[in-house]
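--- STAGE predict ---
source: upstream dedup step, 1 unique chain passed
mode: sequence only
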Amino acid sequence: MMRLILSALLTLLTPSLALAAEGEAAPAAPAIRYFQYWVEYGDKAARPGEYQSFSVELSSGRLNVFGPARGVKFGGPVDESVLRELSTLVAGLDLRGWEGALPENASKDAFDLRREHGEKNCVWMMTIVFREDESGNAPERLKLAGMDDGRASKRLQAEAALTHFFVAQAERARAVTPRHIKQMGYSAMSGENAIWYGLSADEGKIRLQRSLWRAQGECMSESEYVNVDILSRLDALIENYELDKWHGFKGANFDSRVASAFNMQLEFDTLQEINASGNTDRSGGTPPHFAEVDAALRKLLDDALGGDAAGTHDAENLGPIREFSFSTGGMSMDSFIRYEIYRRRDAGGPRMVLRRQRGVHGEPEEAILDKSTLEDLAAFIRELNLSAWNGFNRSARDVLDGAGFGLRIGYADGMVIEASGNNAWPSEYGKRTKALFQYLDGLLEPKARWKKGSGSL
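--- STAGE serialize ---
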């Protein structure tokens, strides 16, 4: 079966070579719509270079590359020309001899091969999906997988061409693609105490955590949503101190077990990383300007959390509603809409934020709500009698259009209203949700609210 698939691949991808040998004009290479290749060399297998694994995935408008060169890791948008260039490259590859010698009764699944025979061998897999031509036809999708001892010359030649191509594309795209922090972790000593910060960015909301371990063994922790502007301030710190140059730093005689150890981990939405670790009490144990970065980073994060007194909590009464979420949608991603109210620390104090997102990839819109506005909203919810929906949880299994909703309201006194449905709706769902959405839209768009009112501000 593997030989038949390879023969089909050669038939599709190499006619241009044969025609060129006869002096005829070569036809255009089949255009690739999706390409994936990954390879992993076992600990005891021969390797073509320093890398043990390489993985690449390219589809319309996006490229993901993991390795093989040190620090080459990228995920993000690329121009459509990359797919066209790849189509030409693949058409010229000689893929004969890729199948290798498989053990008797070996699985053809690459993941099984890796698990069962990967230690002494190289396991690989390639998937190619072609575009349709002008007539709406496309060559059959090809999925190849196999194993060899790491010395298969034909595969290594093709792999070398692919790695060279995709590393160059990743470096080119990384140089022009804006990146955004997705995760951050930082731990270090603070006098006799150890401190850890963690930051995560998800759907436009930024969660910041801080834990302080005192010398007596006491641990104090807190976690808050903070204003999104913390990301731009972190970006500025990274640029000012050239923290990209820290990536891969490991201090001389690094020991993670002692009190002087520090560790920094930054992950970006482009798959780029900045990782550094060392010991502050050793010569060569820290990267350049470490003390300045440590002080600036702690101040930035502590200010976002409202000071450095870990474990303290605000006592302000922010209103009767402490959490709110209402989402609804159908099969189309554009039909999705979500309203949410959550607690966020802004300008040194806690705020309740109303957030609306239209469409799965829509840009969120926000407004800060004061205590009186939340009290008015709570009264309006009572007027709509949404508490009558509490406990509703139904699904129409015979309906497959994907429409549904989810509601959760949490109050300061501990009361909770929860309801959800999949193609099933509680009493007066349409009427009540229309009124609720109009009310929430008015909080986000004051002018729209005024138009619905009596005609006066």
